[in-house]
Amino acid sequence: MTSAPLDLLVLGSGVAGLSAAVRAAGTHGLRTGVITKGGLDLATTRWAQGGVAAALSGNVEEIDLHLADTLAAGAGLCDFDAVRVLVDEGPRRVEELIALGAEFDRDERGNLELAREGGHSVARVVHAGGAATGAEIERALVAAVRRTAAVLHEHTFALDLMIEDGCCVGVQAIDPNGQVTQVRARNVLLATGGAGQLFAITTNPSVATGDGVAMALRAGVAIADLEFFQFHPTALYHPGIPRPLLSEALRGHGALLRDSAGERFVDEMLPRDVVSRAILAEMLEQHTDHVWLDATGLDHFAERFPTIYSDLVASGLDPMTDWLPVAPAAHHQCGGIVTDLFGATSMPGLWAAGETACSGVHGANRLASNSLLEGMVFGPRAIESIASGAFGPSATGAMRSVLGFAESDDPTLSILGVALPLPQTSTADETSPADVTSPADVTGTPVTNLQAGSSSVTPQSLKRGLQQAMSTDAGVQRSAETLERVTLVIAQVMAELAPMDQQEVAVAEVQNLAQIAQTLVAAALARTESRGTHARLDYPGLDPAQAHRLVVGS
Question: Measuring CA to CA, which residue among 342, 355, 339, 337 is closest to residue 381?
């Protein structure tokens, strides 16, 4: 693909990767390449509706309030310094995006319109097209990257990291013709997004298979916080995937959650993990597969939220007269590849940003609309560090959980890291179809057994079985019993994948999902408490002694 090594190879074309590529090529003149397994404009960012949270006034008190809201949502596991970087630098990154041509919603006087979302104490979220913020951000960044990047590899699947002398020097990839090739670079930035496809019901597109985290796991790079996977409480109950998302902005403008009797049952503006669990409790109690979002009292719905309105009309719903069926859906991976405050991972030459990374800003639960902001802040920070000549990690931010606390003994920074051994995969002989029970999901639908050894087993059937098991046994709520049950399913999936062609994209994607599932479940079993998005039925309370990160790799 490329003869000479690039200065920087970016994997992924969401907000983190594209922000980094623009900064690298446009500001610093680095020879930059981008690999994305779909089209440049088809990353998860495109589906982000909520907006970008930032204290745009620049007022110190407002910035500190954003910091306090983020720390509160993170349930004791946010890295203070990382959150400080996020809220301090966020406003400038929003302004830079506007300078690139992103058009956010404004009032009749030309001022940016600000919305309030769950977990936020004030209105500070900017939107585009009511609920098309991700698409607008991606449009602006894609145009800038096409102008500045030296090499673009679209429809190209990254298989594995290339490692020489303990350093990352590029990736092996499958090109659009199905050929395995190498792309070498002095620095590699993983910005491959999350792994929403772990679950049967998700707001994430089909490309969200956790490829970057899985590659890092195989290379022994430090990973943390995978047990914290955020479910969005109000995805439209709809047969399609990704599930249409009914933005938190609707609740911020006054939409109400109602049960089957029409009664409210939760404060709609609480953090997402709280609202998701409240919805699930109602569904279980009332034996239904959804609750209702009542937006009939919102004025000018079609003008305020044109994208959502279009989705609803396409589904045969009128938000001005109809209550909208909603249920939780897998939405955001809070953990990932551990980084320092500059995006460096535990492997020299390898960087990470955005949903792929564990930067420390989300802790146990992401504050609404901080995800796009994280990519916009930490992607460019990695580039500034690369341009300055840095090559390996420093003991800052979440990386202190891996390297220790050399630079500070401040107790507010002491989110310790506890080593979690890599899970051992059972062999095909140890896991038989009889070992795998068939639980029912929250709607009462049986989860079908995987038919081990059957000629009908395909990567697609294995993926569906894994998704069903993860949704039922490792989703909004977990217990030792359900997590041990899904462990058997994961082992069976991995055993069935072993003889398949590992250089086939469909096989590689399921392999990546299974490896992440294995680590997520191991961490969820080890965390014997309920904190943030991690809810254990058998350990319902928060344990202050477990205010640490569970770290796999080094």
Answer: 342
Kindly tell me the burial class for residue 392, based on how many C-beta atoms sit within 10 Å of its own C-beta (0-12, 13-18, 19 or more): middle
Please say whether the dihedral angle defined by the alpha carbons of residues 233, 234, 240 and 241, taken in this order, is positive or negative: negative
Map out the domains of the chain with their CATH numbers. Answer: 242-326 (3.90.700.10), 433-552 (1.20.58.100)
Q: Is 372 helix (H, G, I), strand (E, B) or coil?
A: helix
Closest alpha carbon to 545 in 534, 529, 532: 529
Report yes or no: 12 and 375 within 8 Å, Cβ to Cβ: no
CA 490 and chain centroid, separation? 21
DSSP 163-188: EETTEEEEEEEE-TTS-EEEEEBS-E
pLDDT per residue rounded down to tens, the chain (554 residues): 546 789 999 999 888 999 999 999 988 999 999 999 988 766 555 545 558 899 998 899 999 999 999 999 999 999 999 999 999 999 999 888 888 777 888 888 989 888 888 789 998 988 876 556 667 777 778 888 888 888 999 999 999 999 999 999 999 999 999 999 999 999 999 999 999 999 998 988 899 999 999 999 999 999 999 999 999 999 999 887 778 889 888 998 899 999 999 999 999 988 888 899 899 999 989 999 899 999 999 999 998 888 889 889 999 999 999 999 999 999 999 999 999 999 999 999 999 999 999 999 999 999 988 998 999 999 999 999 999 999 899 999 999 999 987 555 555 556 889 999 877 654 444 444 334 444 444 433 434 455 555 568 999 999 999 999 999 999 999 999 999 999 999 999 999 999 999 889 999 999 999 999 999 999 999 999 999 999 999 999 999 999 999 999 98
**Cα gap 339→352, rounded to integer Å:** 7
CA distance 518 to 509: 14
- Catalytic site residues? 272
State both tokens at 216: 């890092």
Residue 424 DSSP SS3: coil
Residue 45 CA to residue 371 CA, distance in Å, equals 9
